[in-house]
Structure formats: structure tokens, C-alpha cells
Amino acid sequence: MTYSLTSTAKQDLKELLKTTFQKGILKVNHSDHVERISDGEALGLLISVVKRTL
Question: What pTM value is reported for the model?
């Protein structure tokens, strides 16, 4: 697994995932796991957020 997200990107992703969970866009709150997810998992979550908000 690759872990190359910058600290800024991790913080932005954490906030994005928390907000999308609070708004009901995602059914699971993944924001607590940002420090442990791979780049591929982060990309997959981002794809889901974009698809569900378009």
C-alpha cells in the first residue's frame, strides 16, 4: 500500500469525509480512519463523494 498524502491533504480529506457523512452523502464516517488508509482507499472514497454529489 502507498501512503504519500501530505498532512494538508489528510486534514482536508478528514474534513471532507466528516462533512459528507454529516450531510448523509456517505453512510459511514470514514474521517476517523484517514491516518490509516492507503492512497488508493482515499481515492476510492473521493470518487464516491464526487459521484454522489454530481
Answer: 0.88
